Amino acid sequence: MTSELVIKNLHASIEGKPILRGVDLTVRQGEVHALMGPNGSGKSTLANVIMGNPKYEVTEGEIWFKGENILEYSPDRRARMRLFLAFQYPMSIPGVSVANFLRRSLEAVREGNRPLQEGENPSGRMTKRKSIPPAEFRKLLQEKMRLLKVDNSFINRSINDGFSGGEKKRAEILQMALLEPEIALMDETDSGLDIDALKIVSESVNALRGPDLGILLITHYQRILDYIKPDFVHVMYDGRIVLSGGPELAPELEKKGYEWLRENDEVVANG
Amino acid sequence: MANVLASGLSRGAVEGISRQQGEPEWMLQKRLQAWETFESLPAPLGRRGDLGTLRTLANFKFQQIAPYAASEGLTPTIEQALQSALASERAGLIVQRNSSVVHAELSEELKSQGVILTSLENALREHPELVQEYFMTKCVPVETDKYTAMNAAFWSGGIFLYIPKGVEIEQPILGQVWIDTPGSAIFGHTLIVADEMSSVRYVEEYNSDLAGDAPALFNGVVEVYTRSGAHVEFSSMQDFGLNVWNVTHRNVVEENDGSATWVMADLGSKVMLSEIGSGLSGNGSAAELVGVFFTDHDQRYAINSLANHIGLSTNAETLVKGALSGESRVEFSGMIRIQPKAQYTASFLSDHTLLLSEKCRAESIPGLEIGANEVSASHGATTGKIDEEQLFYLMVRGIPQDEAERIIVQGFFEPVLQRIPLENLRVRLRRSIVRRMRGAYETEADTWVDAQERWEIEGVDEGAVHLDERPAEDEIQLTEY
After folding, report:
1. Poorest-confidence range of A107-111, B265-269, B403-407, B477-481?
2. How many CB atoms sit inside 10 A of residue B243's CB?
3. Which of B67, B135, B367, B446 has the most other CB atoms within 10 Å of its CB?
4. Which pTM value belongs to this model?
5. CA B130 to CA B345: how far, in whole Å?
6. pLDDT band, very low/low/confident/very high, at B8 (cuts 50, 70, 90)
C-alpha cells in the first residue's frame, strides 16, 4: 500500500505566536512536491511540526501518516515510521562520529515501533534491540556513499562538526539514503550551496527518487527545481498554502516574484 | 600492636603508626611536628556563599574512625580488578590495601636499570636519603593545610617510585589503592621522583569495597618531582564508593625543561576535596591537566587546580570536563598564577560542565593572577544543559530520547577522553561514564560504547572500509557484545 502523509487544517504557534494558520496538504510515496514561499511564510515550521519539534505547539488540526494520527507521537517514533527530515541547519554534535550515529539510527529505524498499549504514552518504545553487524553496516554505508559520491573520510568525523555548508547538506542526503524513508521532508536543502554543490546534491536526490519515496521539497528559490523536477508545486504564504499546481507554477512564480501573492492572498481571503 | 588502631586521631596513634613501621627517629619527629600543626590549623571552610563542600568535609566525624588498619594479601575483588587494569601492558604493579602495601612487583629489566618501586614505608628504610629530601618538603609541604598535616602525621604504607637518570619507561606502572575496612581512615602517600631526562607513565586507581554504610576516610597526598628534562604522566582514576570521604592533594615540582601530564578522572566518593597543582619552577617546564568528572546522587566535589608559573618560558594547559546528575554539587576553581619572574609564559584553562538534572548544582571559578608582562594566558568556563536542538536532531533520526541524551553526553566527554594517553584507561573510563547514565536501556548503552571502541580500534579510514571480506569467525566475534 502506498504511504500517505495527510495534513488537515494544521495550526501551530511558537511561544504563543501563530505561524501555521490552517495547512492542508497530502504527500504520497513516489511523488515529489515542491513547497515554495517567501521567508517567514511558515515552510520550515511546517517541516518541524510534522516531525514533532517540541518548540512548536499545534493548536488545531491533524497530521496523519500511514493511517495513524501521529500528532501525539514523539519525534523518534515518527522517524521510526520512516518519516524523514533533512534539516535546513543540521546540528553539529561534537564527539559523536557519523559512523556510530548512523549505525544506531539505522538500527532504530529498521526496528520500527512497538504497537501502543491502551493508554500508553505515545512517545513510544522501540520493539527490541537488534544490532546491525559492523561489517554489514559498513558495506551498506559504503554502497550509499559511492552512490552519492561522498568521501570516505567523512564518516569518521564528528556529526556535522566543522563541516562546510555543502558537506552538511550532503551528510543529510547520505542519512536519507541510508534510512530509506517513505516520506522525506527536505528543508531548504539548496540554501547556502554554490552551483556545483547544488548540482551534486540534486543528482543525489534524483538518484534516490522512485516509487517508494515521497518528497516534500521546501525551497525559497526556483533554482533547485531546474535540477529536481517536482510533480506538484505549492505556494505558502502567511501560514497557509495559497496556491497549488503542476510543475509549470514554479517558473511562473519566479517571473512574478512573491509580491503578487499578497494581492492573490487578499483575493483568496476576501473570496 | 593491634591490626586496627582504636578510633580517633591522637598523638598516641601517631607514635603507634611510626613504631609499627619501624621508622627512623627523624620521621617520628616529623610526624609529631605535623600533629602539632594539624592541631593548630583550622580546617579550610571555603568562601561565603559557595556550595559548602569544604564546610561539609570539616564536619566529618574524624574522631569516630580508626586511623590505621593493617591488611595482608589481595582479596578476590582486587584480583578481579587487576585483570582488566592494564593487565597486558603494565611494567610494574603496587597495591595498597587499607594501611598496608600488600603487593609490589616490577619487571626485572627495570630493576636492573635502577628503577625503584616499593612501599614508602620500605623506602624509608632502604633509601632514607631520597625520602628525607623529597617527602613533604618542597612539593606538598606539611603545613599546606590541616589535611596535609593530617596526612604527614598519620600516613602509612605509601607508594614510592624512583626513576634514575636517563631511564625512559614506555609501559605504564600501575598503583591501586583499596579501602575495605569500614570505619577506617586511610592515609595514602605517593612519592614519585623522576631523575634527569627520565620518563614514566604512572596510573593510580582508587577503589573501595566496603560493606555497610559506615563511612571511611581517604586522605591522600601525591608528590611528583620532575628533575631536568624529565617527564611524568600521572593518571588517576578515582571510583570510591559513596561512603568514602576523600581529601587528596597532588602537586608536581618541575625543574628546567621538566614536563608533567595529569589525567584526573573522578567518579566516586561521597565528598571530595581535590587539590591539584603544577609547580612550574624550572625554565621551560610544561604541564598539562586533563580532568573528567561525573557525579550523581548527593555527591559533593570541590576541585581546585593551580598552574603556578615560576620559571621563565613555561607552558600549562588545563582542560576539565564534567557532568552532574541527581542532587550532586561540584565546585571547580581553576587558578592560573604567573609569578613576576615567569616571563614568556603561556597558560590556558578551560572548564565545561554539563548539568543533567534539575537539582544538581555547579560552580566554576576560573582565576588569573598575572605578575609578569610578557605572557599569554586565558581561561574560559561554560555550564549548560543538554542542547534541545541537538536532542531533537538525534530523535528525528529515530533514536529514543534517553539514548539520545546519552549519546550527547558521551560526545561531550569524547574530546577530553581522546586526550587520555593510555587506551586501556580511556576505554574503561568511557565505560564507567556510560554506566553512570541510568535509563531503560542499560545493555544498549554498552552496545554504544562497544561500537565507539570498535570504530576507534578498527579505524574507519579508506583502507578499513575495504576490509569487508573478513573471515567469517572474525565477524561473529565482532557481533557478540
Report:
1. B477-481
2. 19
3. B67
4. 0.83
5. 31
6. confident
Mean pLDDT computed over A34-38: 93
> A131 touching B, CB under 8 A?
yes
Question: How far from the centroid of its chain's Cα atoms is residue B48's Cα?
Answer: 27
Q: What is the CA radius of gyration of chain B?
A: 23
Phi and psi, residue B138, nearest 5°: -95, -25
Within 380-439 of B, beta carbons closer than 8 Å to A belong to: 387-390, 392-401, 403-404, 407-408, 410-415
Of A73-82, A125-134, B124-133, B406-415, the least confident: A125-134
**The CATH fold of domain A4-96+182-270:** Rossmann fold (3.40.50)
What value does the mean pLDDT take over residues B276-305?
Answer: 96
Q: Kindly list the residues from chain A whose CB atom is less than 8 angstroms away from the CB atom of residue B352.
A: none
Residue scoring higher pLDDT (B222 or A250):
B222
How much is the average pLDDT of A125-151? 77
Give per-residue pLDDT as tens, B73-84.
999 999 999 988
- Give per-residue pLDDT as tens, B431-473: 888 877 754 344 444 455 555 554 444 433 333 333 333 333 3
3-state SS of chain B is CCCECCCCCCHHHHHHHHHHCCCCHHHHHHHHHHHHHHHHCCCCCCCCCCCCHHHHHHCCCHHHCECCECCCCCCHHHHHHHHHCCCCCCCEEEEEECCEEEEEEECHHHHHCCCEEEEHHHHHHHCHHHHHHHCCCCCCCHHHCHHHHHHHHHCCCCEEEEECCCCECCCCEEEEEEECCCCEEEEEEEEEEECCCCEEEEEEEEEECCCCCCCEEEEEEEEEEECCCCEEEEEEEEECCCCEEEEEEEEEEECCCCEEEEEEEECCCCEEEEEEEEEECCCCCEEEEEEEEEECCCCEEEEEEEEEECCCCCEEEEEEEEEECCCCEEEEEEEEEECCCCCCEEEEEEEEEEECCCCCEEEEEEEEEECCCCEEEEEEEEEEECCHHHHHHHHHCCCCHHHHHHHHHHHHHHHHHCCCCCHHHHHHHHHHHHHHCCCCCHHHHHHHHHHHHHHHHHCCCHHHHCCCCCCHHHHHHHHCC
Q: Is A14 on the interface with B (CB under 8 A)?
A: no
Say which residue the cell 527536505 belongs to. A186
Give the closest of B392, B414, B459 to A75, CB-based: B392
ipTM: 0.93
Average pLDDT, chain B: 89
Task: State the average pLDDT over residues A108-117.
Answer: 80
Q: Answer yes or no: do A135 and B444 touch at CB < 8 A.
A: no
Residues 457-476 of B with CB under 8 A from A: 458-462, 465, 468, 470, 475
Please indicate whether, in this complex, the C-beta atoms of A135 and B452 are within 8 angstroms of each other.
no
In this prediction, residue A116 carries a pLDDT of 67
* B45-70: average pLDDT: 92
H/E element, A186: strand A183-187
Contact B448 A94 (CB under 8 A): no
User: At A176, which helix (H) or strand (E)?
Assistant: helix A165-179
- Segments making up each domain of chain B, as ranges: 11-386, 387-481
Q: Tell me which of A23-27, B176-180, B421-425 is least confident.
A: B421-425
**Chain B interface, best mutation among A49, A138, A139, by max B CB count within 10 A:** A138
Q: Which of chain A's residues have a Cβ under 8 Å away from the Cβ of B472?
A: none
Do A96 and B443 count as a contact with CB atoms less than 8 A apart? no
Question: Is B395's CB within 8 Å of A133's CB?
Answer: no
The pLDDT value recorded for residue A126 is 53
Domain boundaries, chain A: 4-96+182-270
